[in-house]
Design a protein that fits this description.
- This protein is mostly helical.
- The chain has a domain at 34-93.
- Helix content is 59%, strand content 6%.
- It has a two-stranded antiparallel ribbon with strand order 1-2.
- The longest helix is centred in the last third of the chain and has 34 residues, at 60-93.
- It is rod-shaped, with a radius of gyration of 29 Å.
- The structure holds zinc ion (ZN).
- The site of zinc ion (ZN) has 8 residues, from loops.
Amino acid sequence: MNMREGYCRADVYTPGRMRSHQCRRKAKEDGYCHQHHPETVRAREEKSRADYAAAMEKSPWRMLEKSQIKRAELEERVKCLEAEIERLMKGGAK
Ligand SMILES: [Zn+2]
């Protein structure tokens, strides 16, 4: 694909089209438009990752996972307490 001079170098995919085309915006910095500048892209990806992580943290699945971890901890604790009660009962029966 020939690059048009003075325009952003980014390849853009249009939904429903097989081929990508060169971005139609004028290049502003390092041969890219503001939207496709590597730093802008990186910042956007960083933000979407952070948003995704935050959303995941609040998701029902994560809540369920947390409650399952909590439940496993509590079950472990109950086992310890039961063993302790068993021990005390045996000790008291003597
Ligand atoms: Zn662009």
